[in-house]
Write a structure and sequence with these properties.
Length: about 250
């Protein structure tokens, strides 16, 4: 996978295994960091010019406001940004409230492959509102090139045309059906939106994110808030989240 990524022009890759309560609980920041470092050493020893950073594909959990950014749940390269994956088949209750609370305490959710969520067909307005809140939207390269079918491609193209797609990612799992390849999708975006926007989706915005610099959604030029309010914001959000769980949150 590392060789394939470099051959496609990729120079930096985030290692983002899933962290799912009750399923992938053994994954935590410490283990991910150790495994990534070992892989990085092997890649360099093999003469492959690819830099790795850590992260995780983070699913909803009641303790997320206290575990995010710690040794349990890593953000992307230790920044304010993290990959946020809603449940695939059912729209989680009060998802927007959860995202808003996380933003309020200083984090920036990057919603992973929203175009592939099965509930997007009837709840596209939720994607719109998440984007307006300040969440970034990460589209899978294979969605644009048709690897996930016509419906997924339709939603990906709609988000592109509406300026709601901020980042293009490989979401790589292997070297066959889910390869670490971005060039085909980047070229498709360039044809649709121009070379500058295509480059922003695969180079500029990802670089800013990994450097922990402000990146606003395409349709919202507002800098994400950070600073001293984060600690008190955590306390407020913990109270909110406990109430949210009691009232039917996932």
């Amino acid at each position: 996978m590392a060789r394939m990524a470099v051959d496609d022009g990729i120079t930096r890759m985030a290692c983002t295994p899933h962290i799912v309560p009750g399923l992938y609980e053994s994954n935590d920041a410490t283990k991910i960091r150790t495994a990534t470092a070992a892989l990085q050493t092997a890649i360099f020893e093999a003469g492959i010019d690819l830099d790795l950073v850590i992260g995780a594909d983070v699913h909803i959990a009641p303790d997320l406001p206290t575990t995010l950014g710690t040794d349990r749940v890593p953000t992307l390269n230790g920044t304010r940004y993290f990959l946020f994956e809603p449940t695939h088949h059912v729209l989680p209750p009060r998802l927007e409230d959860l995202a808003a609370g996380l933003i309020d305490i200083g984090f920036v959710p990057i919603v992973t492959h929203p175009e592939r969520l099965s509930w997007i067909e009837h709840h596209y307005d939720t994607i719109e509102r998440l984007s307006e809140l300040g969440c970034l939207m990460q589209i899978t390269a294979g969605s644009i090139t048709g690897s996930f079918g016509k419906s997924v491609r339709h939603h990906a193209e709609r988000m592109l045309d509406e300026g709601r797609a901020d980042i293009l990612a490989s979401d790589a799992h292997n070297v066959t059906r889910r390869p670490p390849v971005l060039s085909r999708a980047r070229d498709a975006v360039a044809e649709r939106l121009g070379a500058d926007e295509a480059n922003a989706m695969v180079v500029d915005r990802p670089a800013e994110i990994l450097a922990d610099r402000p990146v606003a959604p395409m349709n919202k030029a507002v800098e994400p808030e950070t600073g001293p309010h984060v600690t008190s914001g955590r306390r407020r959000f913990q109270r909110f989240l406990r109430r949210w769980m009691r009232e039917g949150g996932v």
